[in-house]
Backbone:
């Protein structure tokens, strides 16, 4: 379980997070929604300890990640897979080597075993033939899928997705959504999806939390989201419905 | 105006603090040899082997020009021609071999390191390494700095040999000084400490160029513009610090 308590963060005097409280239960898929610049990605980077809060606490399975040593934090991070907004594939490595990287770094698997796992992961993201291609040779959607294969190679317990469908065409977005849903079902991982794409949220999430003015303005299940008459939430959902042509 | 003055005063202090912090973390990551083992070898090739041709070319011309200019300035029946060897060899060993190599590495290797790490920073590749549970400083910075410290002396030795050889050949075939006289002059004033001093300088220069470039690249902010700025700053800062280090070492060790 991941718990965020009273999290504050500002950059250069500009306040971004103003007391975030959030709990993510084992096995659930939580979508963190909100406008661009509302602090969703900043919140995600705090959850994995890439940013230090000004105040507040983040616990992963009961451990406060900001009070542990760097070595312990790295061990905790090995339970996470992260899909960054742009994929963040290592551009000096082929797709195969990108997916194999965490396996070569953190396991004692033989090259043959690594090859099997990597090909399995690439098959899972429906890109079986791209192993030899460099990231620059792949489209944006393909890069995200390879990055997703890399994120799940070590079978993490938690997967964080930062805007997984941003900048993609609707068909590729649907493919990514399906992959996220399949991963949640097959691997029983706990997923946190940072997005402003309501179409994705309705497809993949069990719960949603709306970040507004640096706080969790609204949180609930997808059913509750449909029924909610909160003005800010409705306005956000409505803007998205307009964008996706509903 | 006040803000500008404040920035002018505090930015370098802040940068020095962050640079020291980064070095402290890098030293802490040195024992994690498995993290950077493979990367170290690659960096040694990038820093050392790949830089060898341009360093040798620059060193050969430096030696040759020093010979020509020395003979031009010291043409007199009262001064023996062996003086050319006495000046060219210590010039290469004490100063030119290290400084010419240093400037080339600052431009070639320093800019490359800053651009590489800067691009990795702005495209979240460094965040991806950290998010996996890897020590990004150990993985990216330690092998680059170690490669600089190890390979700079190798380049320096090559630069000295080629520079002295270039000077000697141009002196001989250009009719400035016969080869034997050049060698006699070189032997006459040779100090065994000179190459040791040169090697000490190389260790310091190698450390400065790679660590400063890593610092600039690792903390890059912004997109393509930020990478460009970091790359330029890495090359300029490396060259300036190299000059200061050169003076301080000469004043303290010679």
Residues:
């Amino acid at each position: 379980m991941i718990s965020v308590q009273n999290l504050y963060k500002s950059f250069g005097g500009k306040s971004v997070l103003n007391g975030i409280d959030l709990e993510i239960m084992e096995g659930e898929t939580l979508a963190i929604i909100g406008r661009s610049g509302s602090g969703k990605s900043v919140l995600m980077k705090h959850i994995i300890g890439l940013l230090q809060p000004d105040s507040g606490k983040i616990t992963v399975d009961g451990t406060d990640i900001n009070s542990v040593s760097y070595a312990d934090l790295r061990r905790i991070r090995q339970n996470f897979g992260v899909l960054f907004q742009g994929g963040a594939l290592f551009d000096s490595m082929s797709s195969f080597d990108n997916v194999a990287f965490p396996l070569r770094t953190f396991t004692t698997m033989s090259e043959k075993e690594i090859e099997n796992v990597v090909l399995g992961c690439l098959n899972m993201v429906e890109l079986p033939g791209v192993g030899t291609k460099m990231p620059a040779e792949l489209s944006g959607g393909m890069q995200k899928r390879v990055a997703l294969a890399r994120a799940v190679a070590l079978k993490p317990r938690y997967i964080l997705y930062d805007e997984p469908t941003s900048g993609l065409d609707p068909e590729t977005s649907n493919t990514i959504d399906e992959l996220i849903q399949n991963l949640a079902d097959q691997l029983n991982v706990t997923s946190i999806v940072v997005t402003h794409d309501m179409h994705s949220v309705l497809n993949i999430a069990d719960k949603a939390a709306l970040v507004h003015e640096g706080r969790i303005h609204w949180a609930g299940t997808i059913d509750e989201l449909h029924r909610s008459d909160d003005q800010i939430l409705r306005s956000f959902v409505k803007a998205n419905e307009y964008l996706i042509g509903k | 105006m006040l803000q500008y003055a404040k920035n002018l005063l505090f930015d370098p202090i802040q940068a020095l603090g962050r640079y020291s912090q980064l070095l402290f973390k890098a030293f802490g990551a040195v024992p994690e040899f498995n993290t950077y083992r493979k990367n170290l070898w690659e960096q040694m090739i990038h820093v050392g082997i790949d830089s060898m041709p341009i360093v040798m070319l620059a060193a050969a011309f430096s030696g040759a020009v020093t010979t020509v200019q020395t003979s031009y300035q010291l043409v007199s029946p009262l001064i023996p021609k062996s003086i050319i060897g006495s000046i060219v060899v210590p010039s290469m060993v004490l100063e030119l071999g290290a400084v010419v190599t240093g400037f080339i590495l600052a431009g070639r290797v320093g800019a490359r390191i800053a651009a590489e790490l800067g691009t990795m920073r702005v495209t979240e590749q460094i965040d991806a390494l950290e998010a996996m549970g890897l020590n990004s400083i150990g993985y990216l910075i330690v092998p680059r700095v170690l490669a600089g410290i190890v390979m700079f002396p190798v380049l320096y030795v090559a630069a000295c040999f080629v520079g002295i050889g270039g000077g000697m050949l141009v002196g001989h075939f250009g009719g400035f000084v016969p080869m034997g006289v050049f060698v006699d002059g070189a032997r006459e004033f040779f100090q065994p400490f000179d190459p040791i001093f040169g090697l000490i300088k190389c260790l310091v220069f190698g450390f400065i160029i790679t660590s400063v470039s890593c610092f600039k690249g690792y903390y890059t902010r912004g997109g393509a513009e930020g990478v460009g700025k970091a790359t330029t700053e890495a090359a300029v800062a490396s060259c300036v610090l190299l000059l200061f280090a050169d003076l301080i070492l000469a004043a303290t060790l010679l």
Observations:
- Strands of chain A lie at 2-11, 14-24, 29-33, 55-60, 63-64, 80-83, 158-162, 190-194, 207-212, 215-221.
- The interface with chain B takes residues 45, 48, 50, 70, 74-78, 80, 82, 84-86, 88-91, 101-102, 105-106, 160 of chain A (CB under 8 Å).
- Chain A has a mean pLDDT of 89.
- DSSP finds nine helices and ten strands in chain A.
